[in-house]
Amino acid sequence: QLQASGGGLVQAGGSLRLSCAASGSIFSINPMGWYRQAPGKQREYVAMVFIGGSTNYAESVKGRFTISRDNVKNTVYLQMNSLKPEDTAVYYCNAPRGPGYRFIWGQGTLVTVSS
After folding, report:
1. Exposure string for 32-68, b = 16+ CB within 10 A, e = fewer
2. DSSP state of 73
3. What's the pLDDT at 6?
4. Can you tell me the distance from the alpha carbon of 58 to that of 29, in angstroms, rounded to the nearest whole number?
5. What are phi and psi of 85, to 5 degrees?
6. Is the per-residue pLDDT at 27 higher than 90?
7. What pLDDT score was predicted for residue 104?
8. Per residue in 28-47, pLDDT tens?
9. CA angle, corner 108, sides to 104 and 113, nearest 5?
10. Other C-beta atoms within 10 Å of 70: how many?
11. Cβ neighbours of 27 (radius 10 Å)
12. Which of 23, 29, 55, 76 is most open to solvent, judged by the fewest CB atoms within 10 Å of its CB?
């Protein structure tokens, strides 16, 4: 089970750090990812981090967001800088596995960026 937190209201250009805490070990889960769903839109991929530390980002967040993982704390982070109004969404974490995902989607954490 995954619990995302850290969302909130921020002005454009601001920063937020999201956390995703797992109830069990994520040591062997590869990769872990962040996703988001804006109002009226489908859920989309944001970023993923692999066990070795390598990362991948959606073009829309590249250079502004940084994903990381702490396998001791069983937590995945998303540092979001230079936020834009179009980043407004509910952010979720999960782990892609085959055509689906390893975990049931949680409630996510809402990020609202005002202009």
Report:
1. bbbbbeeeeeeeeebbbbeeeeeeebeeebeeebbbe
2. T
3. 98
4. 20
5. -55, -30
6. no
7. 93
8. 899 999 999 999 999 999 99
9. 155
10. 12
11. 12
12. 23
Q: According to DSSP H, which parts of the chain are helical?
A: none
* Separation CA 113–CA 90 (nearest Å): 11
What letter represents residue 24's amino acid?
G
Residues 82, 38, 5: CA angle, nearest 5 degrees? 65
Q: Tell me how far apart the alpha carbons of residues 64 and 70 are, in angstroms, rounded to a whole number.
A: 20
**CA distance between the termini of the chain:** 34
Token pair 């409630």 is found at 107
